[in-house]
Amino acid sequence: MLRFHFSAEDLARTRVAAAPHALWEIAASLHRFQTPAGRWAYAHWYRTARERLREAGLESAVRQVLLPLYPRASYWPDFLTPLEGAAGLEAGLQAILATPADRVTAELAALARIRRVPPHLARLPERAARTELVGVLRAYHRAVIEPHEDWMHESVHAERVRLARRLLDGGTEGLLGGLGPAVRWRHPRLEIGTYPAHQEVRLAGRGLLLIPSYFCWKGPVTLADPGLPPVLTCSLHHEPPRAAPGSPSLEVLLGRARAAVLRATAAGATTTEAAHRAGVTPATATHHTTALRDAGLITSHRHGNTVIHTLTLLGATMVNRNPDRPGRPRVH
């Protein structure tokens, strides 16, 4: 059982991360190698990730360095997912390097109480050993996370839109009540009953940072040390891809380019962004967005000097019933 205890001040200071957290995504992606659970949601990534690790010569490093440090459904050292990672991979890696040696020693000792820590990892309090670890993390990210970043950002953006609607409709309590079936809001506590450890976190006015994660599957995750800035990493709302039996594909109905533009607006997109995602010119994207808007599949709103296109309910239904790739999150 994991419980977060909120005050009125904590409710006011609860927020949602603006983008994927690079180091939490590394951790969660490593967990995907450790279980078949939910593999359908990452089928496209999983097939290519193993091949890319092999091509990059990283299979041994992942097996001997990363997997022992990031066990699934268990404790792993908090210094591996520093808050600074929200600003990007390099900021997070620099924070790992800057972690005080005594903290690294204490967290490795906590890991060793649960599972055997290989002798070469016991050297991590030394900066030279952490420099090597950072090199492995950077190479792993380049091989299997970076090629997938567009999908990750699009998916996390769509989740932020979904949570924003919960916030607008029900306030912070509506937001906290919409984090998934594993999470329950019981004022003034947020509870995860399936959490593998018993943990009580008193926010004490610090608020809570919610981090939607592409690779986190089902169960939310937090830091082990309640004294660190409170975060909760949450799964996206994946659903199995499915198409209505016998229904024609979007490509048959709309044509390849127009179907691609429609899918590109699933998380909200400007004309330029839709053109980039669909692989067409901005002029072509403008032509297609006009036709899609006239057909009632998208709606367009001006925001400053740009126009944001989003799916209507009809458009979202069409995209959900005609997924383009296995494992890609559906629209909410």
What is the gist of this entry?
The protein has 332 residues and is of the alpha/beta class.
Main beta sheet, described?
A: 4 strands, mixed
Mean of pLDDT: 88
Shape: globular
SS element count, helices: 13
Whole-angstrom Rg: 21 Å
How much helicity do the residues have? 40-55%
Strands in their spatial order, largest beta sheet: 3-4-1-5
H and E string: EHEHHHHHHHEEEEEHHEHHEEH
Q: Which stretches are low in confidence, meaning pLDDT under 50 for 5 or more residues running?
A: 239-247, 325-332
Blueprint of the fold:
Layout: E1 2-5, H1 8-12, E2 15-16, H2 22-32, H3 43-55, H4 59-69, H5 89-98, H6 101-112, H7 127-145, H8 149-176, E3 183-186, E4 189-192, E5 199-202, E6 209-213, E7 231-235, H9 250-254, H10 256-264, E8 269-270, H11 271-278, H12 282-294, E9 298-303, E10 306-311, H13 313-321
Parallel strand pairs: 1-5, 2-6, 6-7
Antiparallel strand pairs: 1-4, 3-4, 8-10, 9-10
Helix pairs in contact: 2-7, 3-7, 4-7, 5-7, 10-11, 10-12, 11-12
